[in-house]
Amino acid sequence: MDFDLIIIGGGIVGAAAAYRAGQMGARTLLCDRRDAGRATDAGAGILAPESSTRDGRLWYDFALEAVGYYSVLIGDLAADGVPGEELSRAYGHCAKMIVALDDVEAAALAEMERTVYARQEERRPPPAESVRRISPKEARKVYYPLLADASAVLLQPTARRVDGRLMTAVLEHGLRARAVETSEFDVSTLLLEDGRVHGVRSACGDEYTAGAVLIAGGAWSTDFGAQLDVQIPVAPQRGQIIHLQLPGQDTGAWSIVMGFSDHYQVPWPGGRVAVGATRETGSGYAAHATVSGVREVLQEALRLAPGLRHAAIDDIRVGLRPYTSDHLPLLGAVPGVSGVYLATGHGPTGLTLGPFSAKLVVEQALEQPPARDLAPFSVARFLR
Ligand SMILES: Cc1cc2nc3c(=O)[nH]c(=O)nc-3n(C[C@H](O)[C@H](O)[C@H](O)COP(=O)(O)OP(=O)(O)OC[C@H]3O[C@@H](n4cnc5c(N)ncnc54)[C@H](O)[C@@H]3O)c2cc1C
């Protein structure tokens, strides 16, 4: 056997999976095709489930554990020799504000606030810094000078942001430290015999065998369903996000801003603010920006922060989120076939959940009991 584990896909999920496998001492190969539209390269990077009420309890509890795992991962990468400066450019803490601009949004914010507080109170131990209301004046003065006149603002003082591209690069650094092999190739076929997957074949015909194969191919993971005779219900959801440049502004200290139309702003040090994003369900795999997408993103950005109107447009990024209809990832073993595992379908929250999901699935694939029950995330829920 060539490897203990082969991982298909080198976005945040595949890279984190490969790193965990390397830490566990497994002989590991990471195969990545680097498709245009790789979601990780476009992700906004908001990690703040504490003040998110969009998804249900299962997502919320998992997401809290997932953001907790980031500190462990960053510590492990530092111990493996990744320079602190690289780590702090990839990941860091900042505040997050949810901003209502009119009475309708203020009513929605009040509703959201009730859920956030109820969940906050249930947590044991309670969070050190809780989510709270602040005045629109304070929001602008302390957290985001370009903010529009707001009706109501909810503040999460300690959230986190991650740059998907830099985090993947940092993980690649960790892979070298752990002697994990990486290869830029297209996995065209799984090697499948007597109901067991025992390796992969590349589009060029090269074959590699392994004890287990992990599919972390983002929106493209669905391609392996036919061969496994199991539908992998992941679809691309295009997201367009625009990076703006504000020379001379101390944006590193600003807060993430969330509005009420799926749009948000994520400031980074060095005068950079990412504004986004579209959520184009049913978009297909075309990973290009569109006129209507760019217009929507800029319109919403200016509604939240009119002060951005003179910013320079630095970059337009397009990513294909691996979307599932119930907004939960697909994790763990594939029913009816042995030797193959899924870690995909993280949709709009894969930067939050991805490294933790990857860790748990790798532990299962390498036959170590995972720290958490993965059954609720099994693809079996779609087969019933
Ligand atoms: C605009 C936007 C904003 C977002 N904002 C956030 C956010 O604020 N917070 C958050 O938590 N998440 C966010 N996300 C979601 C997050 O980015 C994704 O869920 C996550 O990056 C998915 O990672 P992945 O590794 O599963 O897939 P990807 O990053 O898409 O990587 C999949 C990789 O697999 C490779 N691959 C596929 N098939 C094969 C094959 N057969 N052979 C070889 N390689 C293959 C592809 O080429 C690709 O490189 C956002 C996404 C977008 C697009």
Topology:
Elements: E1 3-8, H1 12-23, E2 28-31, H2 39-42, E3 46-47, H3 57-79, H4 84-90, E4 91-100, H5 103-122, E5 132-134, H6 136-143, E6 152-162, H7 164-177, E7 181-183, E8 187-193, E9 196-202, E10 207-215, H8 225-228, E11 235-245, E12 256-258, E13 264-268, E14 272-276, E15 280-281, H9 291-304, E16 312-323, E17 330-333, E18 340-344, H10 350-365
Parallel strand pairs: 1-2, 1-10, 2-7, 4-12, 10-18
Antiparallel strand pairs: 3-6, 4-6, 5-6, 8-9, 9-10, 11-14, 11-15, 11-16, 12-13, 13-14, 17-18
Helix pairs in contact: 1-7, 1-10, 3-10, 4-7
Could you characterize the architecture of this molecule?
The protein is of the alpha+beta class. It has two domains: 3-41 and 166-233 and 326-382, FAD/NAD(P)-binding domain (3-Layer(bba) Sandwich), CATH 3.50.50.60; 93-159 and 235-323, 2-Layer Sandwich (D-Amino Acid Oxidase, Chain A, domain 2). It has ten helices and 18 strands. It has helices spanning 12-23, 39-42, 57-79, 84-90, 103-122, 136-143, 164-177, 225-228, 291-304, 350-365; strands spanning 3-8, 28-31, 46-47, 91-100, 132-134, 152-162, 181-183, 187-193, 196-202, 207-215, 235-245, 256-258, 264-268, 272-276, 280-281, 312-323, 330-333, 340-344. The strands form two sheets. Strands 3, 4, 5, 6, 11, 12, 13, 14, 15 and 16 form a ten-stranded mixed beta sheet that branches. Strands 1, 2, 7, 8, 9, 10, 17 and 18 form an eight-stranded mixed beta sheet that branches. Strand 9 (196-202) and strand 10 (207-215) form a beta hairpin. Helix 1 packs parallel to helix 7 (164-177), helix 1 (12-23) runs parallel beside helix 10 (350-365) and helix 4 (84-90) runs antiparallel to helix 7. The longest helix has 23 residues, at 57-79. It is globular. The protein starts with a strand and ends in a 19-residue tail after the last helix. Bound molecules: flavin-adenine dinucleotide. Flavin-adenine dinucleotide binds at residues 8-14, 31-35, 38-40, 42-46, 164, 186-187, 216-220, 239, 241, 276-277, 319, 321-322, 344, 346-352, 354.
